[in-house]
Write a structure and sequence with these properties.
The structure is a single chain. By secondary structure, the protein is α+β, with helices and mostly antiparallel strands. Helix content is 47%, strand content 12%. It is built from twelve helices and seven strands. The strands form two sheets. Strands 1-4-5-7-6 form a five-stranded antiparallel β-sheet. Helix 1 packs parallel to helix 4, helix 3 runs parallel beside helix 5 and helix 7 runs parallel beside helix 11. The longest helix is centred in the middle third of the chain and has 23 residues. The relative contact order is 0.15.
């Protein structure tokens, strides 16, 4: 099996600065085309899913989540910013009926960005750390699921969240698929091997029906170190990959995944199976992933 490795461990990856414009950021949080980053858009869709499946619990969930974000937020960064809130409100469906929840969620997200209080939201462009940028959309999602489990029960909450995230990602396809075969996918990866990336991945083509890849780090999980629930981290950071693998291959590939960094493993073991060639979805044994490349020491990743 031919194997390639892309990316390099960068201990300063999350300290790198990115520029944002606050008003634009507020709208992106509401409705980013890259829907991973649109935590209000995701909440809007989750509310609709709760209403459809647990209507009697919808108001309880809204009140519980609003209370949680209120407790976690130290300052009102959106005070006297009615124009921004009005624009954000236009981007939502069900959430616009619960404006206090939208305000608390957006306020919490901006707090995670660690913005200074004296910036001009209309005109200024500001720098934030990449780690804080990731936290601004991942941590609200963490609490969406945590509060959902507290409201309807853990098993039911996780089951509904997985259903919701799959439907959401299926309905929010952001780019057209260029998938042809897994062999072509592997060849494209080989051509991009020199492209710089802070995400480290080892990739191999086991057969025309099995594309094997091992993620050796996850910056998303790194920024959630202070949060304790690994199952919730897995649900918000990893579970959507199943749907995306299917959606962005036009329904031709199915993802299997056994080991995940989110759940404490040293790497994520993943396989895309092309069902045009074979419906054998058996996941390779751990030894195959261990032997693809030297397994990194977790202490050296950061």
């Amino acid at each position: 099996m031919e194997v390639i490795r892309i990316g390099e461990f960068n201990p300063d990856a999350l300290k790198q600065k990115i520029e944002i414009q606050p008003i634009e950021m507020a709208l992106l949080i509401a409705n980013n085309k890259r829907n991973n980053f649109a935590c209000l858009k995701r909440l809007d869709y989750l509310l609709e899913s709760i209403k459809e499946n647990y209507q009697a619990k919808l108001l309880d969930f809204i009140e519980n989540l609003k209370k949680r974000f209120h407790e976690l937020t130290k300052n009102d960064l959106l005070k006297d910013k009615k124009a921004i809130l009005a624009k954000v409100k236009e981007e939502t469906n069900l959430l616009k009926e619960y404006p206090e929840l939208a305000v608390h969620t957006l306020n919490f997200s901006f707090q995670l960005l660690k913005l200074k209080h004296d910036i001009n939201w209309l005109n200024d462009t500001v720098e934030v750390k990449k780690g804080d940028y990731f936290r601004s959309f991942l941590i609200p999602s963490y609490y969406y699921l945590l509060v959902l489990t507290e409201t309807i029960g853990r098993d039911e909450g996780i089951r509904l969240f997985k259903k919701y995230i799959s439907h959401f990602l299926s309905s929010q396809k952001t780019i057209e698929s260029n998938f042809t075969t897994l062999t072509d996918t592997f060849e494209r990866r080989k051509k991009a091997i020199q492209s710089p990336s802070d995400w480290v991945m080892v990739i191999g083509l086991l057969s025309e029906s099995k594309y094997v890849f091992r993620n050796d780090n996850c910056l998303w999980i790194d920024v959630l170190e202070d949060l304790p629930d690994n199952e919730i981290k897995y649900c918000i950071c990893c579970y959507g990959d199943y749907q995306n693998a299917y959606t962005y291959s036009d329904g031709n590939t199915i993802l299997t995944m056994e080991h995940t960094i989110a759940q404490g493993d040293p790497y994520c073991s993943r396989v895309k199976h092309d069902t045009k060639y074979d419906w054998n979805l058996e996941h390779p044994k751990k030894e195959l992933f261990d032997n693809m490349w030297e397994v990194p020491d977790n202490k050296k990743k950061k």
